[in-house]
Amino acid sequence: AQSVTQLGSHVSVSEGALVLLRCNYSSSVPPYLFWYVQYPNQGLQLLLKYTTGATLVKGINGFEAEFKKSETSFHLTKPSAHMSDAAEYFCAVSHPANQAGTALIFGKGTTLSVSS
Amino acid sequence: DAGVIQSPRHEVTEMGQEVTLRCKPISGHNSLFWYRQTMMRGLELLIYFNNNVPIDDSGMPEDRFSAKMPNASFSTLKIQPSEPRDSAVYFCASSSLRTTGTFYEQYFGPGTRLTVT
């Protein structure tokens, strides 16, 4: 069975500092991986995704993530935090080869706070 | 495109009443998902449909919950009777199913905040 673990339910950084949000997955085969962001009182918005090919993927708002199969990780980074990045971030995984179709499995989420 | 549309955005009801949440997926998407989000349990998948057919409803918490998708452009999630523990934000998402059997990314609606008193 697939699962997603997000280490740290709350991360705080200063404006301009590096953002690192951790995500580890469990899957019997290489999965498809996603990061979503949720701003207060809004739905989830796709930040970036990994399906196949290049393991470093770039998303919106300057975020990127690297798929590391050996570490079963898909950590999200941004070189310089901005106040507008304060939100909740969700890592998600799906199985790429299920004939019936597989829904996303979400992690518990990490709340990012950015201070000035 | 208008994106996924959900109504109502907010619903306050008394325990025991019937609640119906509505969702219009993105035109052309053939898969639809209902999620529930609470502080305690995070984001949970309740049920999803492919081509209007329910595929996995194992996340539906009890028989009080039911979902339908009568056509490709409309789905409902009904709770009858409602209870205070059903208070949560309910999200609808839509996607397309690849020929390989997995999905393209999901697009979420703004959610319905349900409060049961």
Provide structural commentary.
The complex is a heterodimer of chains A (116) and B (117). By secondary structure, chain A is mainly β. Chain A contains no helices and 11 strands. In chain A, the strands form 2 sheets. In chain A, strands 2, 4, 5, 9, 10 and 11 form a 6-stranded mixed beta sheet that branches. Chain B has 117 residues and is mainly beta. In chain B, strands 2, 4, 5, 6, 9, 10 and 11 form a 7-stranded mixed beta sheet that branches. The mean pLDDT of chain B is 91. Chains A and B meet through strand 4, strand 5 and strand 10 of A and strand 5 and strand 10 of B.
Order of helices and strands of chain B: EEEEEEEEEEE
Compute the CA-based radius of gyration of chain B.
14 Å
The shape of chain A, in one word, is: globular
Helix fraction of chain A by DSSP (H/I, runs of at least 4): under 10%
By DSSP (H or I, 4+ residues per run), the number of helices of chain A equals 0
Instruction: Specify the biggest β-sheet of chain A.
Output: 6 strands, mixed
Structural class by secondary-structure content of chain A: mainly beta
